[in-house]
Amino acid sequence: MNTLRDELRGIADEAPLVDLGARALRRAKHRRATTAILTVAAMVAIISGGTATLFTGGPLPDPIVLVPIPETVVPLPENNVQPLAGAYRHRCLPDDPTRCEGVEWRVFTTSGSTYRLTDAGTASPVAITPDGRRIAYWNAEQQTFNLRDLATGQTWRAPITVRKADMDGENFLRPSPDGLHLIYTRFGGGNLSQYSVLIDMQSGKTTKLNAAWFPVSIGTGGTPITLVRPFDDITRIWVLGHDPITIDDFTYEFSALHANGHTLAWIDKALDPNRSPMVQATGSIATVDAITGITSPPVPIQGIPTTSRLTRLGAWASPTEVTALTTSDSPTTPRQSTLYAIDIHTGKTRKLQTLNNTEASSTQPGVIT
Amino acid sequence: MDRYEGFQEFVHTRQQALMRTAYLLTGNAHLAEDLLQTVLTKVATRWPKLARDANIEAYARKALVNQHLSWRRRRHVELPTGTLPEHGRSHDETTVRRLALRQALAKLTPRQRTVLVLRFYEDRTEHETSQLMGCSLGTVKSQTHHALARLRALAPDLAELLADVQAEVRR
């Protein structure tokens, strides 16, 4: 049975799409200019003995607390977007107010706005630069990767073609801190071969990388490039241009290479054949000099709830702090993730951002997934 | 620094949600756009202060309601002119019901229409509705009661549609 609420929503659905920002701004500027002129005129009147008074704006109304109603999520504006705090795959509902279909990428900003990334195909991951200002994604129509600057709207297009069918398997995107260099790596599913390429988004130059290695990070300007290759109980780390080194741990969970060009952190793990799973995080963060291979003793992490576990590392938040993503493990509460900055010397943590279930399900700036 | 920094983003994100409410309040696409345009201009004019220390969304919604009520006091607003088709197999039930509702809504007083939109479209509590309309809780209750009674009288065929909200109001 239909209700009054349903019918009112039905009528509201007939509201035309509008784009009123620019017009409202023009009017406001005009009004401001007019008010300034009138203010001067009023002052002249007062000085000359007139009695008129002019108010250019009264106090704001008392604040009221309102619960926001579900909003219509609009496509990402071409420019002037605040830095991103993350991206996630949104599953469209049959009565979705945005009339989206299937699954689509959505991004949310540090100021709390959410947008549809309508030209990004969901076959590929998206990657956000650590400062949140640029996003790399696979453009389904162009069949290649784009880099977009959220503030200016400038977009760079990769000079390679990657079809949807080419993305069958595991795909990884690693942007440099400025986004202008991009590593795309595919560990093929089915008959596809492994493929890894470094793309200079400005010049269009591409360089093939050894596709047997997993990409971790790439520096501004395209170097240094850090790759890793886990084996049964060791992992090899290779900063291109240097000899690979080896650590006694099987892991993919590394931080980006530090700006000093040699420090790399990873989530410390221990193997115990008598428990399940046999490999578990120890609650410590470990570091290695990726050039010399010298490791530092793991440092116990402080300040993370016992119900949460460290799942990912990412870019460096300060010279001694690396970003880390934790996920709550409690079966009785909704899954929640938190971004921290962890000091690699003291293990002390600083909370950066709490993410809800949806937001936590995908990509955060600089986090290596 | 640009005094309007963040305004465009606010508009991009919220204008469609506000437009839906404006459309329900006015019942007319042009008037709704005009109404929202006026409100957004007001928001832009006060943007630096709003962005600093106010709930922008709440301000915009309150301004939307106030502007609508003050407009309706002095403006002649056209009512939907379509006539209701007679019931029959050739007419879609939903279309008939919706047109009947639109016509009935257009005949309500501005306050009655506003109270219905806020209570049953935006699902605001009576307290929130009173804040948005700048009236007492008692006025919200009585306006809601009168609005539903008038809808029933104007369009008896909508009785089924109103059943659940009437039960809600009686509680």
Automatic annotation (TrEMBL), chain A:
Transmembrane among the record's keywords? yes
| Key words of the record | Membrane, Transmembrane, Transmembrane helix
Cite the Gene3D superfamilies for this sequence: TolB, C-terminal domain
What organism does this protein naturally occur in?
A: Acrocarpospora corrugata
User: What is this protein called in UniProt?
Assistant: WD40 repeat protein
Task: Give the transmembrane region(s).
Answer: 33-55
Automatic annotation (TrEMBL), chain B:
Domain (RNA polymerase sigma-70 region) spans: 11-75, 104-153
State the Gene Ontology BP annotations.
Answer: DNA-templated transcription initiation
UniProt xrefs under Pfam families: Sigma70_r2 (PF04542), Sigma70_r4 (PF04545)
Q: Has keyword DNA-binding?
A: yes
Keywords annotated in UniProt? DNA-binding, Sigma factor, Transcription, Transcription regulation
Q: Which GO terms describe its molecular function?
A: DNA binding; sigma factor activity
Q: Which NCBIfam families match?
A: SigE-fam_strep (TIGR02983), sigma70-ECF (TIGR02937)
Per the similarity annotation, which family is this?
Belongs to the sigma-70 factor family. ECF subfamily.
Its protein name is: RNA polymerase sigma factor
